[in-house]
Amino acid sequence: MDAERGEATTSHRTSIVSENPVVAEMTRDNDEILQGTLTHIIHRGEHVHRTTGEWSPTIHRLLGHLERVGFDAAPRFRGTDADGREILTYVEGDAATRPWPQELLADSGVAAMAALLRSYHDAVRDYRPEDARWQVFSRAMREDDIVVHGDFGPWNTIWRLGELAGIIDWDLAHPGRAIEDVAQLAWYIVPMRDNAHARLCGFEAPPDRSRRLATLCASYPGVAHHDVVATATWLMRRELEAMRDQGRRGEEPWASFLRDDQENRVETDLNWILTNGHAL
C-alpha cells in the first residue's frame, strides 16, 4: 500500500515469523506502518489494520470465541476498513524480539509463556469451528485436536512492565494436537537451537536448556519432556517438507519463508536437536 512516509523509527512491534524488530515508518497522520515477512500492518490509535487472506474469517471467528469466553490475552476483531483490511485492537507493550527482554532470559519468563499457552488451550478445548479455512496445514479437526496458535514464539508475545500481556499474529492457527504448540514454544525459548543463536537472543553464556525445558513442562502440567523433544523434531521436519514442497511451487506462506532463508535456519535447528536432544 502506498502511503506518505515521514521519518522512520525503529519499532518493538513485529509481524508473523519475524524474530527481529521491524522498521516502522510514521505517516503525517501518525499512522505507524510495519512490514513483516507475511503481513502489512498499520497501527492507528487503539487499533491495528492488517492485510487479510481467505483464511481470515476463520481466524476472526476464533478471536470472537476467545472474547466470548473471557480469554483476554488476544486482540479483539473489530471489523474491516474501507480497503478490506481487518481491524484488531492494539495490544499495548513490546514484542519479545531479539535480544529478548530480561524476563524471558529468566526461567520465570519460560513459566509465564507456558502458563499462558495452557490458558489459551483451555479456552479452545471444546471449540469446533464449522466450514473453517486455514492458511497452513488445513484439514478437518480430529477428536483430540484443538486449534493451535501455530506460531507461538517470543516475537508473537507482548510484554508490558515486565509482565506477559498478550499473544498476537493468529494467522497461522490451524487444527493440531496441543503438544504441537508446547513443542514449538520449547523449540524457540529453551531454545532448541545452537549457542550462536542463544547469544543473539541475549544469553551471555549457554543457557541451561534442560532446566528451562523442565520449567516449561512444570508450567504446562501433563506433558513429558521426551514427548516435547520428539514433537519438536517432528515439527522441524514438517516445516522443512512444506517449504521444500509447497514453497518451491510458490505457495504461501512457504514461498516467503524460503525467501527469508528459513529453510537453512530450520535445517540447522534440526541438526542441533538430533545431536543434542537426548541430553535435554
Structure overview:
This protein is of the alpha+beta class. It has helices spanning 56-68, 102-105, 107-123, 178-189, 195-201, 209-219, 225-245, 254-259, 262-276; strands at 8-10, 23-26, 32-35, 40-44, 47-50, 77-80, 86-89, 94-95, 146-148, 157-160, 163-167, 174-176. The strands form three sheets. Strands 1-2-3-4-5-7-6 form a seven-stranded antiparallel β-sheet, covered by helices on one side. α7 packs antiparallel against α9 (262-276). The N and C termini lie far apart (46 Å). 40% of the residues are buried. The model is unreliable at 1-18 (pLDDT under 50).
Shape: globular
Strand order of the largest sheet: 1-2-3-4-5-7-6
Mean pLDDT equals 89
| Main sheet makeup | 7 strands, antiparallel
Total of DSSP H or I helical runs spanning 4+ residues: 9
Strands, helices and their partners?
Layout: E1 8-10, E2 23-26, E3 32-35, E4 40-44, E5 47-50, H1 56-68, E6 77-80, E7 86-89, E8 94-95, H2 102-105, H3 107-123, E9 146-148, E10 157-160, E11 163-167, E12 174-176, H4 178-189, H5 195-201, H6 209-219, H7 225-245, H8 254-259, H9 262-276
Antiparallel strand pairs: 1-2, 2-3, 3-4, 4-5, 5-7, 6-7, 8-10, 9-12, 10-11
